[in-house]
């Protein structure tokens, strides 16, 4: 009996001890929750909350201001604008060219695949014949063996088409891969594939003749170039028909443009084609364009870039750099105006994450296989680091900028996807991007990716702050598990004995000297102007810097005080618009997409404190395109609530009429 009593007593003591621990834990959690609520309420309802929730007030002031009232909102300006759009739209819709283009497009979609097979076969046969002619005639250079292989491959590829009885539209719709691309990614409707077969001897003969001419052209042009140009022409036509496709393609292929001989120009051409297609849609009244406060500020920044290109220490180079930058900033206007539905916004995220996942795999394999370079690393200070991954970029820092920009989109997918394959793939993508970021060994990127992830999670849920405080408490214990080379790299932040840190610090100091003489005007836009002026102000041994290693400092030096103020004001207004929407979201999905893009921009700006992230034009385009995604998501959410309010109002009026009728 005594043993049983002792056992019960011991159990009661253990149970009471567990209750005490549980109560203490719940008390700590309750304190953390209250602390988190205080912080969130202070940010939402305090002075900062008031400042960062004033975008709508500023926008209304702009809409009701003198300029708006006497230009855009004036009766005369409105009538002229509407009349011009109506005339242009009618003339375009009724034009001979558009009618012929529509007829040709329908006929080509309805044409049997056999006709296209004949075109490819004729091209392959003629390219092979041209190869042997070049080989046999001594007056000409010997034929390229690659041309022969290409010609034979095209002949073989034409065989399945020659045996097919389907037309082009039906074959695209019936194939799983092509249907996924055109329906799920490019958003083509099902009616596009439901076209009756159209047999025309004239079209078939024209296609065969086209193949023969292309084959003869291999006499002076490589057949691969002809095939590539043909595919690019087809893609350009698709983009002009649906400009949203151009946005998705540009976002996906940003890192892969490095495979082209002229990556920046290739991206610019894609943006120009997309803009051309968008303008045609605007003329026809098939798309809309919206200008608000943030758009006006971005346009002002564009004007300052053009002015900085004209009034520069190196005018020719600065004009080229300014023109290229202005073309790439068009990415913002395309994204913010074309991505008008939740599907298109989601496609932007998928394009970025899938592309970054492939790039991350490349970067990880590059490091594992020992194909990395120590060019951007102080090997005497970090002997345990084999090198820094670059993947599809020319510099490890460019890769780091890119991955930091995409990481919030991967994190968003990993958190919001439902359980299953999509969830697993999203988590894997997130891990790949983080690992590849580590292998860039960019300390600025490490800080930025941590900050970006925390910012997104804080916007996503209030519980994040509680978890974050717990993690901060556990950091001293987590450090013991960190790899020594990673820990050494973290500890070197701010260490002046590291040559990279010292070089960057003295570059900043030398760059600040320039502002003594060019505070108001700036030296001109672009890195060429910086290279021309900086050596006169540089410290000894730091004269070769290509840029100031700071986004904000580079803008300040290039465009003067006006340029940096406009840029900072643009970023402030951008933050206002986002925080105002986060405070009172009208659509949860759009809120999270906006938060994702906002976090990405803030992450890039954090990196901009330590480096000039716009040195690479593709990263420059990414910055403005992602900013456009955030604005597009907010506009989508606002449109959704306006629709709901309209229908609620319509229902209320209908009810009032019914009641009135019954009373009578």
Helix/sheet category: mainly alpha
In helices, the fraction of residues equals over 70%
Order of helices and strands: HHHHHHHHHHHHHHHHHHHHHHHHHHH
Beta-strand percentage range: under 5%
DSSP E strands, number: 0
* Bulk shape: globular
Please summarize the sheet with the most strands: none
Distance between the termini: 88 Å
Low-confidence stretches: 647-664
Count helical runs. 27
Give the rounded overall mean pLDDT.
82
**C-alpha-based Rg, rounded:** 30 Å
Number of domains: 2
Please sum up the structure shown:
The chain is mainly α and 664 residues long.
Characterization of this structure:
It is a single chain. The chain has 664 residues and is mainly alpha-helical. It has 2 domains: 96-227, no CATH class; 293-476 and 496-646, no CATH class. Helix content is 76%, strand content 0%. It has helices at 2-45, 47-51, 55-63, 66-69, 75-93, 96-110, 113-136, 145-163, 168-174, 176-185, 201-217, 223-241, 243-253, 263-284, 293-310, 315-338, 342-368, 396-416, 421-440, 443-460, 463-478, 484-491, 499-518, 527-533, 551-583, 588-608, 617-663. It is globular, with a radius of gyration of 30 Å. The termini are far apart.
